[in-house]
Amino acid sequence: MKSIDLSNVQEASDFTRPAPGAYVCAITSAEDVPEKEYLMIGYDIIEGEHKGYYTKLREDHPDWSNIGIMYKSYKSTALGMFKRFCSAVSKSNGKYVFDGDKNADEKTLVKKKIGLVFQEEEYYGNDGEKRTRLKVLKECPVDEVPNQKIPALKTIKEDEGLAIANNIPDDPDGIGSVPW
């Protein structure tokens, strides 16, 4: 091992991940991606023992690009879910209205409160191991956060993992090359 100087390094603290459930959050960033028809929304927990969790995680892992980010599509096929998002923000912030029409400046969303319900889901890591992560399942007004049910773990069926692994295109040349 190479020699390293730890004298000016702060020791890592125990940093537990929030449990699945609903949290009062704030929108930390909002960016329109018009060519894809979605808003990229940054968020963080602002109350309770996990206050600032996603900000701290981004500071500790600056190369992780999707920490505390959700995507809200406003394509015609997703307008019902987009309306739920707009309604949750509006109901959580007094007289503030974000309706995607007259009041559609996404930058005004920053610093607004919103209730977010997090679900734990399984996924396969780059190493092929099954892991879990928290994902935003839905939004709600902040006054409804205490009444939200804790969502069940979203599992991967074992045969889905095999289907992904086996979905490699045929090798027409017979030389083991992959066409991408």
Structure description:
Helix content is 17%, strand content 27%. It has one domain (21-165). Strand 1 (21-33) and strand 2 form a beta hairpin. The chain has a five-stranded antiparallel sheet. It is an alpha+beta fold.
Number of domains: 1
Query: Largest sheet, if any?
Result: 5 strands, antiparallel
The total strand number stands at 5
Rounded Rg: 20 Å
* Percent helix: 10-25%
Chain-averaged pLDDT:
86
Residue runs with pLDDT of under 50 for 5 or more positions: 170-180
Beta-sheet strand percentage?
25-35%
Q: Which structural class matches the secondary elements?
A: alpha+beta
In short:
The protein is of the alpha+beta class and 180 residues long. Helices cover 17% and strands 27% of the residues.
